[in-house]
Amino acid sequence: MTFYKVNFIAALMASLFALSSQKDGSCLALKCAHGKIYDEFSGRCVCTCRRGYILALNGHSCVRVRFGEWSSWSSCIVSEWGGVQHRGRLCKTKLGRSANNRCVGAGSQSRSCSKVTSDFRIRKNLLDLTDEELHDFIQGFTKFKQDHSLFGYLSTAYWHGWPSKCPWYKHGIKGHKNGHCSWHHHPMFLPWHRLIMVQLELGLSRHMKNKTLGIPYWDWTDPIYKGLPDLVKNPTIYDPILKKYVPNPFYRTYIPSHAPVNNKTLYNYRLVVKAGYTKNHLMLTNVIEALNMPNYKKFDFTSVHSHDDIHNCVCDAFNKIGVNCTYSMVTTDFAAFDALFFLHHSQMDRLFALFAHLRELLGQQDWTKASFLQAYKNAPEFDFFNRSDVSGSWDWPMSPFCNASMNPSYVTLNKDSWTVGNSYYYQELFGYKYDTFDLARRDWKLLLKDLKCSFNSNNFGHPSPFISKLGEGLGIIYKTKEKFTFSCTT
């Protein structure tokens, strides 16, 4: 029996177990048109439908859905990397019932609308930097941290948390009582962090000889890592071109405007004990599960567990007396002062880009306001209709990128590029690409097979156990978020 047959049987058995393990046997008795699954939130079995259908109001049958006519093209957002126009169409039943995220095919399209006049920056795997690139990165980052202009490292790092550069968020915005600018566990989380990464990258590029080298990514799914990347570990680092050890700009950051703490000059802090960085397998399966989710919201709220674990493990104070992680990546206020933040969020943005790219290759992209917001309308924890920052997140002007008095970069200040809707088009508006989407050195294109199976499932929209085609040894992938702990997963 082949490997894939064994895996298929294992996944099938897991699915059957999930259906039959309910004490009241409700799943076995329920009659459904397409499929059924046990819903943990309601505590009962529910009927499901294939993509191209939506569950009827009777809760049993499935109603066919179709896309309507395309909207007109948006106005051109001009950039030096081709700019972008986009359009979308709505998914509905014959009687006009909204069915966002249920139609087969593309719900959105985009096209370039201006000339490409500048080179793209390429974000490479940290492990694949050449000696010349590593030298350029070390020297450029050193100068970047010494840059005290609005383009400098500290000026941008301040935007994330302390010293709270967005005081207008203090009143009425949940989770922003101190007035910091960044968003977390929110629809704007990945788009906002995409923008700050662009801002940091453009500031760094001013000090780099190679203007086409972007911020490298740390692929923490790769088992070659047994801890932090070597780049950030020690006070000195070997420069392969200078052929000597030099002060390591990635080791720690002096925070000059902050008052001394315990009569000591303040630097960012790390305390890595054993930590989740050795949990490469868990983070790989978590990312695979996230990429197979039926919409952006579920992708974001699955992959965020790997994201959070990296932050939590940089300073692991759990059950440790006298350890203060306030000035580390654990906290929103001081996370961006650690150079590791760059490498980590370059990886997170790469996953966001891969989520979009997989759907575009399959002709199933659906990046529209209606489809984006639908999942949040159905999530009680967001209180969608009483929170303007959630219901208005698609068009929300993300600060401080939209603020000309604070943002010196014409790229991120460009008209409407600072919204969730438009920040999606990272190549056309921000001018960077990734060298590859491989995860743990495994061929990312195999994920297309996973996604096809997900799209063709009778339970589309409801995550189920599956075996990934990305390679052997991953086992059944299901509910990976439950394997993470609240602090650092060890």
Walk me through this protein's architecture.
- It is built from 15 helices and 13 strands.
- By secondary structure, the protein is an alpha+beta fold.
- The protein has a 3-stranded antiparallel beta sheet, with no helix packed on it. Strands 1-2 form a two-stranded antiparallel sheet. A two-stranded antiparallel sheet has the order 5-7.
- A hairpin with an 8-residue loop joins β12 and β13.
Secondary-structure blueprint of this entry?
Elements: H1 3-20, H2 26-29, E1 35-39, E2 44-48, E3 53-55, E4 62-67, E5 85-88, E6 91-93, E7 108-111, E8 121-123, H3 131-146, H4 153-157, H5 189-205, H6 230-233, E9 236-239, E10 244-247, H7 280-291, H8 296-314, H9 340-361, H10 369-377, H11 388-391, H12 410-413, H13 420-423, H14 426-430, E11 432-434, H15 447-455, E12 466-467, E13 476-477
Parallel strand pairs: 8-11
Antiparallel strand pairs: 1-2, 3-4, 4-6, 5-7, 9-10, 12-13
Helix pairs in contact: 5-9, 7-8, 8-9
Distance between the termini: 36 Å
Gyration radius, in Å: 23 Å
Order of helices and strands: HHEEEEEEEEHHHHEEHHHHHHHHEHEE
Strand order of the largest sheet: 3-4-6
Number of β-strand runs: 13
Mean pLDDT equals: 90
Which structural class best describes the helix and strand composition?
A: alpha+beta
The major beta sheet can be summarized as: 3 strands, antiparallel
Which percent range fits the helix content?
25-40%
Percentage of β-strand residues = 5-15%
Number of helices: 15
User: What would you call the shape?
Assistant: globular
Low-pLDDT residue spans: 1-7, 17-23
